[in-house]
Amino acid sequence: TSFSTPKKKKRDDGMREHVTGCARSEGYYKIDKKDKLKYLNNSRAFAEEPPADTQVRTRPLLTAGRRSEQRRLLSSFTGSCDSDLLKFNQLKFRKKKLKFCKSHIHDWGLFAMEPIAADEMVIEYVGQNIRQVIADMREKRYEDEGIGSSYMFRVDHDTIIDATKCGNFARFINHSCNPNCYAKVITVESQKKIVIYSKQHINVNEEITYDYKFPIEDVKIPCLCGSENCRGTLN
After folding, report:
1. Domain locations in the chain?
2. Per-state percent for the chain, helix, strand, coil, to nearest 5
3. What tens digit of pLDDT does each residue of 45-72 get?
4. Does CATH place domain 82-126+168-210 in 1.20.120.430?
């Protein structure tokens, strides 16, 4: 049997049209260089001139007036919204440069590696959130294990943050009766967090301290901060 081969047609762009409707059913065939160059030139010209609705619009440069207006809007925004939340988000992406090393107050301490302005978030106190019952059990267990210091920070009446075995550099901050920082409880996405704020300007290599504010007890813990108005005890 002999079938007449259908004549190959060419499209307007120079490429051969598939008679069967599918390139796979026609097998391999070679494309002339002239047709290939014509197709490449047409496709390149189409790529160089995108449609008007798909063109990328360049962002204009901000002038000095626009920059000052944006700063004014940002300041008004921070004043009307929760500034603690905004500062906490900034702290997550731009962490302060800190280091821990030997302290003249007690054992280890936390020191600033960069200047820190007043009323800034320094570091978050990170640990495990536990209940009061668990905190009492862990405190006894730490004493049995010979752990001299337990790093527990009370958030509220029911929640305590335990950073003894699971925490960050914030647990190395020592107590001082004249501290340069203070602790504050803030709420982020319905979760309470403890953040250390700076009370004043902190210089490089200056130790970061805050007042532990321990409750008054009969068994006193001596204070070694060495400040002028030292109370003598932590509790």
Report:
1. 82-126+168-210
2. 30, 25, 50
3. 555 555 555 444 444 454 555 666 655 5
4. no
